[in-house]
Amino acid sequence: MNTASKPDQLKIPVIRGQVLGITVLRGYARLCDIASVSKPDIYDQKKNPTGTQRDLNPKHAKAAYEYVKNREMAFWPEVFLCVRDRKAVQYVPTEENPDFGTLVINLDMLRDSAKLIISRVDGNHRLHYGDGSQEGFQPIERPVSFCVAYNLTLEQEIILFRDINDNQRRMNTSHLDNIEARLTSEERQRREHPELYIAQKLGRDDGGPLSGRVYEGGKKNIGQIVPLRTLRTGIQYMLSRPTKLTALGDADAQYKVIRNYFEAVKKWQPQAWDEPMRYLVLRGSGLWGICFIGADVIDRVLKQGKFSAEDMVEILKSGKNWDWSNKGDFQGYGGRGGATKICDQVTKEFVDASGVSLRDLHRAIMNE
Q: Strand 89-93 and strand 214-215: pairing?
């Protein structure tokens, strides 16, 4: 099945072929060997923004390990890997048939390189404990099937990762949104998915009200409590109504106004930023409710020819002093229906005035 003829090489018999136009090598090897030569490329907004993988679920990985360790009769679909550095891997065909040969992996290069040589496109949880490198987990020497691609660009690898996880097995929606954004040019994103463009920009805008708060999938860092998908859905609602905001027709102008709105919410409910887990403002239906309220607040200020956070705070504070804590006025409100109820209750208490040209308003926003 596989033999290590030298301590610095791993040799595995493989078959070369194509899967839907992608050239791959397929074979069988010990789980511990496949696990030891490959690594996940965990996405991290700060430390690894080019990563592809979602964060590991240790419970899921342990269950996978126990399954192959303890079950006499077991089966896994093949693990899918991708070679990122061809210098460390060689395919040696047989003389009789070029599609039958040997995959030769340079173990020294894998050990010495700081770069990721062979990535795990699909199968990270199955492989995580398999090499026996972590205390309490013995290496699994049972054979598994694998498939490895070696002629893909990083973008093509990301596309396949998305397709596998989106079309066949649902996964973290914020991670998928992040992948979608990375595969779309900024100009096209502004035009076709302004809600995603704005949501992601809110989380990445240094000094902005949601800076560092938006979780885009992968490894979760401290403070990232707003899922990108939840925020995207809320902003999508804000942009779905026929208001002055949607009439602006420019994602950058809309972003500036929405950013000002969240700055206003922060000034209106500062405790939610200080202790976010004790309040509903930045979580679930509460966040959606805030977005729904935002559609109304923003429309009111834009009709007055205004768009600053201070103008919006004035409207937010013009109504009732609501209790946004977990056990406050909106306790038990769930889903879109709950968010709509929150919005209805809050906005009907507002007081304000009206009137201005959309063209002049757009010019004033962009000149700010």
A: unpaired
